[in-house]
User: Which sequence fits this backbone?
DNA sequence: AATGAATGAGCATTCATTCAT
DNA sequence: TATGAATGAATGCTCATTCAT
């Protein structure tokens, strides 16, 4: 991974600047300066400011997908998988506040602003959840009447809102582990199939 | 309250315009035109563009708080109360797409941009959830180990993400009722205290 | 004619600036400064830079048309009318070098750049020539085989090229009167109908 | 002269590009692409963009001078020579629209923009006209009082304006021959010396 | 000689805000 | 109170030119 890879350098700089200032308040020259590149150079790699934003999503969320997928490949138990997903997501957001802000704030902007942008990587990322739920249903672990398409939204929304509060406030009332357990437990119990014995 | 109340007219116009174009793409002149008022007049009622945005939240979310509170006052069963909250929130978002967009997108922007803005009304709105949960816990209905401060975020995040998807796509795969039942059930089962029999 | 007529002030400033620097090298801020107006003010009166250029033509050439028409209204002899036209054109170009440059250089640019611009005023101005020629033909003064549509171009082209050289060089080898007589004579003799006696 | 002569290739490419887009809208990269050469290569042969423009004139108009001169060398009758000049000019402009546009529009720009540029080739080209006129005067064919310095401008201006209209409009109301005859006849009759008989 | 990636100065246009009326 | 013309700071993007290879 050479330091001279301008494309990557710009993406990283943009993530940082978008997170700090927001898309609209970020100036191209801010990104250029952060990437230690001339303003014009940016336009050798991206078509326009929106294009940079979208690339940030695709690349950064693409990275998330990759990492989460790798971890999940080693696990088969749906309940544990859901916990892994939540843990990964929240700890990534905790570690990479820039990415967190970009996902929480700018992602929403972009969906609205750029109608043609389909958020492919994001869909891919969120669909990992429904895949796990379906797996759990096929194994009789999760209730059959749970709609994976709705549950995935509820689960992601819960995680997202929690990480959103984290980026806002410096003080953390609860630890990461504690929070994960809380959220995952609610969903696990909430989706659990009734056992005979019980 | 006459329709000539300029303040109210501007707030309503701003809600509409912010929802349609987003805060940054909305022009003061757009709001002025929508409110049938001169550009300069807006500055007789608001300090600047941000001030309008904040006022929009305060007023619109204040309205939400009021309506939800009124409905909840007639109910005492925590599980039913949670369902009422969810139903109210989602149906309001469904009905008032402008408000929905403003909450989902601009709320995040504003929290970020205006550090001094405390989102009082929004906190009030979201704290209704934790109040219900605490009530449920005191009645032995919800598990004691549920942290209301975390659960309220998870619950609101789930609702918010779902209404976000609604504002984006025209086609609705699931009905409102179906969706509400799904989400509320997950949380209800998820937070339920274990019964003796079981 | 109030000095506060911004529209007129901007047109005049633009004529001056375009003449001095050429359309492409002229900056909006140059025009604004010359017109003693803020940059943004220009956009209250014109859509864009091209629009200013076109307006300059329409107004300035409109003025030419008006003045020439007025003078010609007092004359009925076609040969004298042609001389009046030439005299007016050349002396105006001599007097108003800015307008001269704008006509010679920018008019050509604009016709090329803005395909949809029809140069109405300019056509009107040049058609005065063909009208005179037709009049002369109907009176048997000019040859019948002269095509007014071609002759008008030749006549205007001759005048234009001459005034072009004037704007370039400081030294004038010939006087204005001398030059007018030369050019007009060529065309008058050149278009004359053969007399019986001859 | 091999096609690998970069200098020539660039000149030809520039002529084409300047004609199509105009000097200011033409990009160096456009010329480079048209010449199948790298952007930087152009700067091995020319100092800057203006330099290319000037070179285009010198070379292209030089070619005109050469061709016209060759043809005129075979003729000695001034009236016929003038007709040859007009015919050559107009048919060249008709055939080579790129050159025509460059002469009509960019020539004027350049004269203005680059004060130090003396347009030597262009002067040479236009002076052919005055040379012919002087020849005609020495032979008693053209009137003595015609000033060749003025008449050459009038003649060239007439031809130029006519070819300008050609480049603008697709439809041609008159044929080339018809037009040439019209223009040349006006000037011939217009400059004719009075015959004894008359 | 040739390349083309990189540079960074330059500018048209927008729009929040002001203020004379 | 209300207006809306006027302001001018701010910025995304272009492109002539350079220079390391």
Assistant:
């Amino acid at each position: 991974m050479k330091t001279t890879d301008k494309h990557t350098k710009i993406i990283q700089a943009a993530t940082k600047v978008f997170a700090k200032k927001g898309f609209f308040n970020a100036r191209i020259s801010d990104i250029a300066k952060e990437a230690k590149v001339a303003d014009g150079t940016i336009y050798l790699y991206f078509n326009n400011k929106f294009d940079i934003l979208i690339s940030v999503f695709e690349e950064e969320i693409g990275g998330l997908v990759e990492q989460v997928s790798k971890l999940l490949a080693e696990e088969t138990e749906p309940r544990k998988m859901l916990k892994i997903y939540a843990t990964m997501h929240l700890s990534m957001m905790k570690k990479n506040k820039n990415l967190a802000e970009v996902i929480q704030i700018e992602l929403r902007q972009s969906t609205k602003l750029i109608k043609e942008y389909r958020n492919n990587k994001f869909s891919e990322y969120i669909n990992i959840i429904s895949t796990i739920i379906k797996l759990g249903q096929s194994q009789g672990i999760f209730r059959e009447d749970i709609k994976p398409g709705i549950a995935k939204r509820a689960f992601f929304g819960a995680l997202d809102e929690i990480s959103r509060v984290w980026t806002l406030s410096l003080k953390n009332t609860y630890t990461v582990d504690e929070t994960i357990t809380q959220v995952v437990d609610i969903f696990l119990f909430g989706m659990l199939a009734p056992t005979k014995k019980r």
Notes: The interface with chain D takes residues 22, 24-25, 101, 104-105, 108-109, 111-113, 146-147, 149-151, 153-162, 164-165, 168, 173-174, 178-179, 182-183, 185-192, 198 of chain C (CB under 8 Å). Residues 176 and 182 of chain C are 10 Å apart (CA to CA). Residues 27-29, 39-40, 42-43, 48-49 of chain C lie near DNA strand E (CB under 10 Å from a C1').
